[in-house]
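Figure-free illustration: sequence to structure, shown twice.
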Amino acid sequence: MDSLPLTFCDTVVSCLDLHHIKLLTLLSGSWPIAATNISRKARELWVRVYQDQEGVWIQVKCEADATFRSCVFDPKYDRIVKLELGIGKLQSATKVSLSHFRKVVLPQFRNLITRCTIFDDYYTGYGQYPHAVANAVFDELMDHQGFTSLKICNSGERSRKFFKQQLLLGNVTSIDACYKGWPSTLQGKVCEVVKSARFHVIGLEESEFRLDFDMVSALFDKCFKGEIPRGFHPIIRGKPSFLLVDFSTLYSEYTASKEGDGFPRFWGFDSGNV
């Protein structure tokens, strides 16, 4: 492994996200050299893509470390970790046509998105306008493996297909499903995310989804069986579809602390909340 040519290592490292690039700096040989060279110039980008009310013109704005950056991307160094969609005007943004966005910009996004959060909740109150940006993104990136967090509203058939497909891919660890109209058939897919080893946050309070008994008990099982890594705090939020008193006997040995035992894992319920 130490004898691998630097050019080969450089090519491989340029395809990784910044988290894994930094891990490679701990190795020996050509890997840490290539990883160090790339990590010094790496940019983790927050990309905002807003459309006008007619859905004809698109504005693209990039930020890294809360600073405006050029929207000229370099796939060797740039990674998109946040993608925000919306309607309105952006300051200091690059303006392109919808056609150019579809044909030129979106293919670039496909090569840059990694461990990415997608925000689509900025369509609140704009239901009468075409969702040109969202539809274009959902169509082009439907099967992309780089999304780990979804915060999207039900803006139409494409958003529902994108949501379902991303859950099926198995990379999503956090969900915020916004607004009404989500198909009840997706309830089971959301539950599977809670049961996955990498589950982080599920927020269903702004949607018609409900926290069912299987979702919440799956989180309890992880907690009380010691399956949650230290320092990791998974969260589920939403309206339960069951009576919380159903938990009265679940892990009842932990429902009350013993004075001085120092055991940190206790739970209770009150006023409809866990």
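We now fold a second protein in the same way, so the two outputs can be compared directly.
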Amino acid sequence: MTALEIASNRLPAARSSIAFLAFAAAVVAVNALLVRNYARFSTGPAPEWPVMVDLLLVVPLVFLALNWRQGKAAAFRALALVSLGALAGSLILPDESKNAWHVVDDLRYVALAVVVMFQLGLITLLLTQVARERHSQNLELALDRAISARFGDSAFTRALRLESRVWLYGLFRRPIRQAFPGLRHFHVGKQGMNATNQLGFLIAIGAEIPIAHVLIHLFDPLIAAVVTALSAYGFVFMLAEYRATLYRPLSVTERGLQVRYGVASDFLLEWSSIATVEPTRGPVRRAKGRLRLIGMGEANVLIGLAPGTRVRGLAGSRVVDQIYLGVDDSAGLIAELRARAAQDSI
């Protein structure tokens, strides 16, 4: 089956996702309008049960009905929709309308505890893997294999892999001591002062966290604690992004170009999917079918892809026509890719 045929087969799924998002947004909007204008039609506070049924039952059940073949992944996403529905309902309903909804509000703390336990579980897995295999193999790849063996291959698994990389690169100064597999590697930290710019941004975020905490604490200590916790996680993510920029390379392999960029991007471009390779410079605007991987640097390599080529990301795969890359040795990468393309065409 060709890449174009695969793309055609997946179009209905993409349309289904767009239709569901439109449906969910319409449900939230209609409930918000009805609650806001309830006083025009009746006296007393707006009832809470229609909002509760729509946001906590109807929307998640419709999602499950559309995605039941995904199994556990669909169930996890439905639970996430319940959490989002609880948050949306808390914003929509005024205090005088909330009776049973106060219980839903209290469950937000349960959801927070679940998130914390999830993160602690990932950190425990990370530390266990580090202790077991720190001298034997590449820790990132070992974590990926451990997660895949336990959870299979799904969007949930890809999210777990990303989260494990965040903690791996965020907690350890030099997490990768064994080389990644590949025939040749290309790094991305020096181009356009990519890593230097990230470090400056990281310092600015770190300096802002205690100042913001003190100022917000003057008004509400609880909100200050929540904002500081989220800011601290953002700092860990940016620290992981900075270190991943230094240590995660693009690798030329027998199958194709393994694209690792920052902490998030990790996919394989097979040789048959690469149509053209050209140098480029200057700013790159967002466009449909265009993927930009430049960090805080600048693009210097443009890869044109064969029609219908899909690139896998965190949320799934999408059709990509062009990939703009920022690489330290752009001339070396272009020469390598062109040589591989010439060999593949023989």
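Summary for the second example: Residues 180-346 form one domain.
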